[in-house]
Automatic annotation (TrEMBL), chains A, B:
Entries under Pfam families matching the protein: Pyr_redox_2 (PF07992), Pyr_redox_dim (PF02852)
Name of the protein: CoA-disulfide reductase
Organism of derivation: Nocardioides caeni
Single GO MF descriptor: oxidoreductase activity
Keyword Flavoprotein carried by entry: yes
Domain Pyridine nucleotide-disulphide oxidoreductase dimerisation: 336-434
Amino acid sequence: MSAAHQALRAARSAGREVAVTVIEATDHTSYSACGIPYWIAGDVASGEELVARTAEEHRAAGVDLRLGARATAIDVEDRTVTHEVDGVSSTMSYDDLVLATGASPIPPDWACGPDGPVGGVHAVKNLDDGALWVDLLAATARRVTDRAPRAVVVGGGYIGIEMAEALLRRGFSTTLITRGRVMGSLDEDLGGRIGVGLVEAGVELRTGATVERLETTEGRVEAVVTAAGERFTADVVVPALGVEPATALGRAAGLAVGSHGGYLPDPGGRIAPGVWAAGDCCEVEHRMSGRPTFLALGTHANKLGRIVGDNLLGGDRRFGGALGTAITRFVAGSVHLEIARTGLSTAEATTHGHDVVSLVTEGTTASGYMPEATPIATKVIADRQTRRLLGVQIVGGEGSAKRIDAAAAALWGGLDVDDLAGMDLSYAPPFATVWDALQIAARRLAERI
Amino acid sequence: MSAAHQALRAARSAGREVAVTVIEATDHTSYSACGIPYWIAGDVASGEELVARTAEEHRAAGVDLRLGARATAIDVEDRTVTHEVDGVSSTMSYDDLVLATGASPIPPDWACGPDGPVGGVHAVKNLDDGALWVDLLAATARRVTDRAPRAVVVGGGYIGIEMAEALLRRGFSTTLITRGRVMGSLDEDLGGRIGVGLVEAGVELRTGATVERLETTEGRVEAVVTAAGERFTADVVVPALGVEPATALGRAAGLAVGSHGGYLPDPGGRIAPGVWAAGDCCEVEHRMSGRPTFLALGTHANKLGRIVGDNLLGGDRRFGGALGTAITRFVAGSVHLEIARTGLSTAEATTHGHDVVSLVTEGTTASGYMPEATPIATKVIADRQTRRLLGVQIVGGEGSAKRIDAAAAALWGGLDVDDLAGMDLSYAPPFATVWDALQIAARRLAERI
């Protein structure tokens, strides 16, 4: 939808006409998928609040929006798209095609029973899933009254820990099972702190564990059994194993995908003559490595969407790359953890040939004497030879996460650890120490290189 | 003290000996002056909590610390300092001298009566002042029981609004009188919002007003009278007219000062052979303009102090310049305002010859559907020809202020508005909109250039 609207805006400001048709398989557009765990947690009253622009608003802005229309085939030579509505198939031609098919949750092999989907087990992806989960949790709490209702989350990434937060806050005894570590996109020395926080908030945590099968009663989940033979009673199960680019349509039409399975747009968004792609169905260029990477995030999706919208009408805008910046939080009971990363992790930087030097520094988010002060741990990762910043990771209390943006800006500018240590960041007692936690971390690393 | 400790560290790591003597006129060292308003407000239990390192800790680290010792003269030819303790004068020689005499509150001409200082009127600078204010407010609240105790703050800068917050929170009816605008270091379109917040929290605000005289009874202030003839009952009065570099000692010894009255250290901290300076007694180079400016802030003081400490022993470290980054807040009653700026204001940028283009953009600190979302207004200032970022200012609710650091990092790197609009800043619903407020502001400005 970003591409659609930007194309309309670009046409309008150029005094041109453009006809924009959007084919959408579901009944929803322009909603915040990232908001769904907070809806389930109870922070957001309804799914409608997550909708940034309604179908009516899109149409009023000039978009020919076809909901419940599933694209079934594209022909990039003839420039046509075939789509199906209520079982009726039709084909339309295009001058330019934008693929924005997003990503799909990776389906676990244990989620379906021999008789199909198991009750109580459901992915968290779109608004319909959100509504289902809100109802499912309420129904489960009504049904299970002799003990606390029990949930198992499978997967320790962003959605996994956000759903663990939502379930705890909804009164569910919660187990989190993950194949690897919790928040494996952070280095272990910081990521490990998140597991500690989960346990402190009451999550039963199993890292390095895989689910082997579900036990069911009358088509409903009863327990989750791991490969190691552990059995966890479960009234509901959240599979949160990550997502993969939804590119079947393009692959069937002969369009290339990268090693992560996503389309490979050039910086202007083109993937073939007359064909463009944006969003979670794409791999994006990592600004630090120059290599395509899969980062399913609304930030890149929106940016690339607007770039495509401009370039469709002859613009020459270019995507500047991604840094892998990401934040989330885990807030439950007395635990308030904020989690952030940008740039390359130690493993990624090593893979890309850097001689990596790094340091974790403990600090506080505000002057130590202020009531706002909470601990913050900052890891700075740099190249030993060039002193260039490669990445920064943060785990801390309230006020920690958004500090990553200063590091992201420094990475964007290609700055080094001495720049980060010396730059003029802000200070006042309720907000920082005189040397901000980020700068103390950079300075201490700079002193060691 | 930063310079002293860094010199000791540098000597230790070089296997050298250095004798460091510190001459300090008061009985306090290494305390957070910025924390004093929060101590007065009640956030901090005692002045001791504001002390980062005690005299004993300094001495244990090897500093020969002389408290209550006032330097009265220096001779930069003979390399001697004369100082006075309990009326006894003595002279010591040095190899290198570091001037770190700080800044002094600008004394208002109305603060002294014909018989000397007026009771209830006192500056807020050091720990003794803080203790005096804590006692004064308690005594005033005990004494004035037939109505709310009344305070007048004179000055609308950082200390002025922080003291207004402290006084409101201590139950004082508070008037703020300022010659110009509130927070005149921000452009008027953003700075004006702070005045609105002060009034909303119950402050009686007079902008564009000057104090002419005090009315007193038995040596104690009773009212403040402005040049326009308005009379404000006052049990206590805070003069907060800003500070000026305390350079009398050096000027008497023939050392040069700049147009703001501060020493002019080179990027390594030298002001004359064998003489160095750091902290609020200095002007610092503004990284955006290349010109010396007076920014009395702990951030620069600490950075330059460490640089001097290193360079004293032969190091070659250089101060990278200041951006004028500053934040504060005003929190009272239902009002929570965070205030931040970095880089050049519109007036400063125009003075330095830029063809300025700017825009104020309204946003929210979190996704609109989240309970954390509060309004944030962001002003981005750029050069129309080069598109280079010149400054950013922010006024908004909780979670606004620290966003300035990403802008400061972008300014430090010499980035342009397109970089700020396109860079990979962090997003998650509790923390930001998909395009962070800062990026929406940069993007909207970029579209208009």
